[in-house]
Amino acid sequence: MENQFDLSLTVNGVSYQREVDPRRLLSDFLRHDLGLTGTHVGCEHGVCGACTVLLDGAPVRSCLIFAPQAHEHEITTVEGLGTIDDMHPLQEAFREAHALQCGFCTPGFLTTLLPWLEEHPQPSEEEIREAISGNLCRCTGYQHIIDAVKLAAEKMAAG
Amino acid sequence: MKHKIIGKRVKRVEDPRLLTGGALFVDDVNLPNMLHAAFLRSDYAHARIKNIDTSQAKTIPGVVGVYTAEDMGDAWEPGPPLVSPPPTLENVIFNSRRQVPLVKDKVKHAGEIIAVVVAENRYIAEDAVEEISLEYEPLPAVVDLEKCLEPDSPLVHEDLDSNLAAHLIQQKGDYQKALATADLVIKKRFHLDRGAAAAMENRGLVVDWNEKDQHLMVWDATQSPIPIRNGMASRLGLRTHQVRVVAPFVGGGFGPKIMMFYAEEMVLPWLTRQLKRPVKWIEDRRENFYATTQEREQIHEVEMALSREGRILGIKQKIIHDTGAYDPYGLTTPLNTQSHSMGAYDVENYYSELTVVFTNKTIVTPVRGAGRPQGIFIVERMLDFAARELDLDPREIRRLNFIPPEAFPYNHEIIDQAFTDLVFDSGNYLPAYNKALEKIGYDKFIQEEQPRLRAEGKHVGIGVVPFIETTGVGPYEGARVAIEPSGKISAATGVGTQGQSHMTSFAQIIAEVLGVEVEDVSMVTGDTAEIHWGTGTFASRGAVVAGNAVNAAALDVRQKVLALASKVLKTPEDELELEGGQVRAADIPEQSISLGELAILANPFRGAVEPGTEPGLESTKYFGPAYGATAFGVHGMILEVDPETMMIKIHKYVTVEDCGTMLNPLVVEGQIHGGVSMGLGNCYYEKLHFDESGQLLNASLADYLIPSASEMPHIEVIHENTPAPNNALGTKGVGEAGAIPVPAAFMQALENALPEYNLEITETPLSPNRLYELLQKKERNK
Ligand code: FES
Ligand code: FES
């Protein structure tokens, strides 16, 4: 096809070269071209936060970004955080505190919280609420997520 | 019985996959050669279609086809009536009008589907939708619940002579008599508005017809895979074994994902059979706001007759319930409202007239709570107003009217949503109510904190509201439990799972009964290849109906294990115990055999299975209750309102829940937290604004506000346990409980925070704007 964009980027430490339609959303590229379906799409208009990924370490909404905008950047998705046998302490804390029910919003919370926790190693409840106020969850009422963040902070501090 | 695993805060087995991005949701299904569908939806709520021209759209490269109702030919037929016939009451009117796959002549709500494009990818499909040209003749829209019944109202369904969808009267005792003896009669009008379920995952569907295999494979984000399989097979003229429906991980349901059949669920299977290629459609958020079912709009005229002491003598109620453009889900929601309008109280005389109307709005089916929040709102608000009139403490009037523990089973002599008698199986309300008052610190708040804070100029108020929830209704669910040669357990049930932790809590039941670890149980939910019969996940019934089926099947397998092990170990059955995946003689641990070895012995490759016995250590059992299990709870909150900005902060939130035996308290608490967040949405944030032409004005998550972490309080959950007497596990449902009493408690607290305004709030949801209006009105009237 004409008008294709030669995209090269790194996702979870792996580099990719792909031709993409210039209007392809980063969320669609990650999910459907690379098969990294852990990133979820809940609204496609930048509100719910389910599609959050890290771009050079900072959380961004992949539904609001075209794939070419990630050219020569580094992306981290939920698949890059840990594996079933070797979960990140944040993921473990989410499990221990029952911070997910349907789990659809969860990847967005994890990617939002990961860099934030590094900057806020001892967060208060108020700070946590603020930090996740841009991510919507319809199942949990957020309470167990807040418990999980506190637990994760403890786990991460303990190394 | 003392449990080892049931009732424990077990970590969920489904989590590792969900946490690492490895769980399969519908939109994660990508098949070779797959096509993508996009729909042309009506911009108008009510309009006649004059002409559709798809020729331009068909020329776009990558478009495979564009279809309208006409193209479907004989395959075009409305969806099946889901919950009908109407109840076996006398003089019931019920006009069944069901949604259609593609609109033929007249559009009946904004967002209804007129045409579908199938293309090589979704971008192209959406481009092509823009190229379809359409001529409409807009018609005046039917929006208002009362005006729609006036004789000159436009008609949603022109083959009917009015917009009446249903009418029925339910009564017990004699309300007129009660009225004659009453010391006080209160009359109020209530208006409860619409909200969205807004699951974070929108709906979606992947269908794949395999011509050689003559088999249809479907992944559907549904709460009800087995009925979907049955319906798809019958619509396509296939046998049920030719269709397999999988509801994989589903990102929240809350009711609308049990609506059947959505138009898309009728169109896509037809498309894949035409095209012999897989087709995918994933709803976007805008479509979700227009096309996914909604709930809660009702108008009530209520009368409550009371004695001087505050005893309820009778309740009379006229309900107008909005069903939207069609009524496929029958009367489930308004029947729930009728069942809950007497709350937790002993009411001898009840007269409830229900009128259901068609409007040019999105179809109404149950949303978490399903008509119950409206009923509880009515009765609790009326008691608040009555207490004020009678100068009673709001707590005393409730205590005076509770159904006493010795009155159970308590028969309300009307029918409930399952068309069976509304019988409350069990309950012990007063201690739970008192506990909630104690935990929220009612006395101290009223006597010390509120006066102190008011003196500081703060507007703080308290609200405490009890409620019942009818749960765990029939008809039935089933479960299959089998021991594999590896000694691990495979199990399946027909209910789908949308976050309720079934894979863990049902595994806990099996682990308890068979003496294995929770991790040894692999629980499949929502795959029609694994179990043939079932209905779905709705009405807070999973833990009751499916849970007890799982329990029954596991017990039957245990019996088979004991019988076989008794022979092998030459030990009487009652001396055997199951533990750690082994069966052993109680006193002689070395005399044991593993479940895996027994499973192999039970399925011999040679020799003979004894006549009258079955191979394998497997059982399928069903559970169908005669009537449901009624849960009870109390929610209390202390909130502060800023009368300048109308912003509200909830300082304390306490719930006491009695859902009988809990399978997993962690899961129960999570369900309550989530329910409360939806309930608070219904109080102050979430309202679907339809204008007079039937247009939804806030169809995005930026404009329709669901609570975020900033609005949510910390919620304390306290458990009481009155086990359900009519099921072996003693479970009652809790999935919807969290949402039900919140508006009633919130409005009580808000009025308490603003005593100088003497508010009587009879509507939901409010908003900062709406509260401002109410206060202004009071100011003017002062
Ligand atoms: S999908 Fe990107 S913010 Fe909702
Ligand atoms: S866990 Fe379901 S939306 Fe958050």
Layout of SSEs?
The complex is a heterodimer of chains A (159) and B (782).
Chain A: E1 5-11, E2 14-20, H1 26-33, E3 52-55, E4 58-61, E5 74-76, H2 89-96, H3 106-119, H4 125-131, H5 143-157
Parallel strand pairs in A: 1-5
Antiparallel strand pairs in A: 1-2, 3-4, 3-5
Helix pairs in contact in A: 2-5
Chain B: H1 15-19, E1 35-41, E2 47-53, H2 55-58, E3 63-68, H3 69-72, E4 93-94, E5 106-107, E6 113-119, H4 122-130, E7 133-138, E8 164-172, H5 175-181, E9 184-192, E10 204-210, E11 215-220, H6 225-236, E12 243-246, H7 263-275, E13 279-282, H8 285-291, E14 298-306, E15 312-324, H9 332-340, E16 349-358, H10 372-390, H11 394-401, E17 410-415, E18 421-424, H12 429-440, H13 442-455, E19 460-471, E20 477-483, E21 489-493, H14 502-514, E22 521-525, H15 542-569, E23 576-579, E24 582-585, E25 588-594, H16 595-601, E26 618-623, E27 629-641, E28 648-658, H17 665-685, E29 715-720, H18 742-753, E30 763-764, H19 768-781
Parallel strand pairs in B: 1-13, 9-30, 11-12, 15-16, 21-22, 28-29
Antiparallel strand pairs in B: 1-6, 2-5, 2-7, 3-6, 4-8, 8-16, 9-14, 10-11, 10-13, 14-15, 17-18, 19-27, 20-21, 20-26, 23-24, 24-25, 27-28
Helix pairs in contact in B: 9-10, 10-11, 10-18, 14-15, 17-18
Bound molecules: FE2/S2 (inorganic) cluster (2 copies).
